[in-house]
Amino acid sequence: MRVVRVDAHAPEASAIEAAARELARGQLVAFPTETVYGLGARASDAAAVAKIFAAKGRPASHPLIAHVLGEHDARALARAWPERASALAAAFWPGPLTLVVSRAAHVADAITAGGDSVALRAPSHPVARALLAALGEPIVAPSANRYQSLSPTRAEHVVSQFEGAEWLLIDAGPCAAGIESTVVDVRPPVARVLRPGSVTLEALRAVLGAVDFAPGQVIASGAIASPGMDARHYSPRARLEVATSRAAAIARAEAGAALVLFGEGGPVDAHRLPADPHDAGSALYALLHALDAAAVATIVVEPPPARPGWEAVSDRLARASVR
């Protein structure tokens, strides 16, 4: 894998232009977003899109997110654009929010898994935006990991999962949000969250009022409208267990499992995630990658706080613990 390191805030034009040329000739490029590292291809290149599915081992029934610079470009991929889509885009784009809308006729089936919707996002990371601008068209980019494995928040996470790959990887350091985007389906009369993420349910409701919370739900036809909706997903190689309480987690760790706690207190040798939900989400995958690298067999995590803002962390841990 060819790794090019750039400044996360002001990426070198030569590196971005080289990556755009790779995409233009049908190659894959791994690059950072504010959420996780993505594995990108030109959205209009069916052969390149197929390479993403082959590299990840991803089922063709799982749609991809198309990354755009903003609402103008997003509308070009949509058959209909509800007012609530504009309201959410104005509030959270560029940023870690994906909108599911009715697809335009020209959007490839490979991107939408043959469904009638398309998932769209305008990333805020300077590298992702520079790459979109240099290419001049949308980029589809799921997380740069093997199917159902831990998402990468650092370039070395990508390298460890795809050793020997011949892509270009743009390394701009760790991703700030560290957890995937929130996915909101804006087609129903009441918008619904299909995947919780960095934009919280509270923040969405502050803009729209009523918002349904239905993670993992499929549309009426049975098609999958969003990535990341498998019961098992985001999983480390180690067995991950979410305990019923902090005391239960500590007891399980005393039997030999690696212990992960939120905030302070508990055994001094426990691995820690922050007590703030945003910060915990940012650190979650990096910690799980580190425990995998240490060849830990079992990870036991205390349950996240049952409070608003923790939906994304709770969702990822629940899916990572399914076997």
- Classify the oligomer: single chain
Strand order of the largest sheet: 1-8-2-3-7-4-6-5-9-10-11
Q: What would you call the shape?
A: globular
- Any idea how many domains? 2
CATH C-level category of the largest domain: Alpha Beta
Describe it for me?
- The structure is a single chain.
- The chain has 11 helices and 15 strands.
- 32% of the residues lie in helices and 19% in strands.
- The radius of gyration is 19 Å and the shape is globular.
- It is α/β, with parallel strands linked by helices.
- The strands form 2 sheets. An 11-stranded mixed β-sheet has the order 1-8-2-3-7-4-6-5-9-10-11, with helices on both faces.
- The longest helix is centred in the C-terminal third of the chain and has 17 residues, at 277-293.
- Helix 1 crosses helix 6 (126-135).
- It folds into 2 domains: 2-213, DHBP synthase, CATH 3.90.870; 239-320, Rossmann fold.
- It has helices at 13-24, 46-56, 71-75, 83-92, 109-112, 126-135, 155-161, 201-208, 246-253, 277-293, 311-320, and strands at 2-5, 29-32, 37-42, 65-67, 97-102, 117-121, 139-140, 168-171, 182-185, 192-195, 212-213, 239-242, 258-262, 271-273, 298-301.
